[in-house]
Each structure stands twice: as structure tokens, then as C-alpha cells.
Amino acid sequence: DGFVRVDRDYVAQAAELARAGGCKHFVLQSSQGANAQSRFLYLRVKGEVENLVQAVGFDRCTILRPAVLLCKRQESRPMEWITQQFLGAVARFCPTAYSVPVETVARAMVASVLQPGKGKVDVLENRAIHELGKA
Hints:
Elements: H1 2-20, E1 25-29, H2 41-55, E2 60-65, E3 68-70, H3 78-91, E4 99-101, H4 102-114, E5 121-125, H5 126-134
């Protein structure tokens, strides 16, 4: 319940407030595999919020769908740490396949605002996030 409230409801409300305040371009970080019809709660909620944000009616909307985010956390999450170590090693050989550093996602978000869009809604998958995050 808390996950749905934070990741869907609060984000949709923030989008509505941004639009009411004059925002013309909204950038949303979603997730690889987001799908409002998914049987998996996480992917379903991410897909639902994508649909809700698009329905707000921004002039332009950029949706980033990163794979596993690589970052350092202060709190202890042992399984996440193990996964990140594994994916960090895989990234040396296939850097855009399964993961992306959070810094790259942040740079891609900024770059998406600074460059002209290809359409009303741009959806950037993990490889495109890597490319844009390097620009």
C-alpha cells in the first residue's frame, strides 16, 4: 500500500501540480519492463504511473526506463549489494545491458530537457539512457 502511494499516487499528484504551475516538460524515472498490465506489482505500478503522467497533458513528457540502478546506499540491503556487485562486474563487458549508474540517469534526465524532443512522449530505455547520459 505504501509503495503504491509513493511510487504512483504521489508522482501522479506531483505531475498534476507541476502542470498547474506551468510546467511544460515532465521527466519521469520509471523502470525497465514497466507495464500497467503486468502481474508483478512493481512493474504494474510503474506502468500505471507512466499512463497517469502522460494523461496530465504536458507539451512534452520524457520517460526514462532504466535497468537496475547502480548506487551506493547508506542503509544495509545485503541482497541488493550482492546484485549490484554482480551487475557491476557484468557491466564491464556489457555496460548497457542490465544496469546503469544513477549518475548516468541523472545526466540523461538533464540532457533530455536541454535537447529537442522527437515527439510529445519520449521513452528512453536503458541503452538510450546510457547514450544520453554520456552526452
